Amino acid sequence: MNIIKFLDEFTTEKLISDTTSRREIFGTFGSLGKKAALAAIPFGLATMPSRTYAQSSGDPVSALQLALTLEYLEDEFYELALQSGVIPSGRSQIVYQQISQHEAAHVEFLKAGLQGAGVTPVEKPTFDFTAGGAFDPFNDSGVGQEAAYAQLLALSQAFEDTGVRAYKGQAGNLQGSQFLTPALQIHSVEARHASEIRRLRGLNGWITRDQRGLGMPEATQPVYNGEENVIQGGVNVTNLGDGSPFTIDASTQAYDEILTGDEAVAIASLFIVP
What we know:
Layout: H1 3-8, H2 13-16, H3 22-26, H4 34-40, H5 60-84, H6 91-116, H7 145-169, H8 171-174, H9 180-200, E1 231-232, E2 235-236, H10 248-253, H11 261-269
Antiparallel strand pairs: 1-2
Helix pairs in contact: 5-6, 5-7, 5-11, 6-9, 7-9, 7-11
Protein name: Ferritin-like domain-containing protein
Organism: Planktosalinus lacus
Pfam families: Ferritin_2
């Protein structure tokens, strides 16, 4: 299955609306820059006819194909990171080596699961981890090792957080299938990866509602949209307890939001060569 065809199947009504301009489509991606965004996102996403989307519940195959695409991205990213010479020796290198092994294992598991179900796994796309020139995470001779490593860490965090929220967002599609339990097992490991990367950055291990204040590039903000939500299950979680409202920061950090398939694909597409 071709990756562009797969991504097309995850487009939203907003993306295919005749009244929606390409500027509006890319405007949600922060200040990455029009040139980088336009170079990275397949234009086919905005031109496909309306169809039944994979976001409808009970579609485990599409959920697994999305998960595999994200795992392809992480697997190649960590492999290139280890080859780059940017990662300092010691604990950082050990962490990246271990995460790399996990991501490779996830790729092989998802491919085997899809093949066992009689489905052809989605093809691995060609990635551009510079996002059209916005980043330079593997080139210590370009921006310098310290700056390259800082970009590497920030992208690692964004990719892990995307994976965590995306797996959670596909739980409904996996409900009732034999893949729900292993998907949840992968999800929790991805969450541990995200926490560990934050520790390498000298941060707390959980998501806060304003990642930009934690040295994250503006372009990664779509990964964290919705994290300011204080309504969980219809309950305002700032008004719980003994009458002393929880702070917004504490309340939002206590709950992790989902990413829909559309949102996860839009983020991943920034790093996919059309």
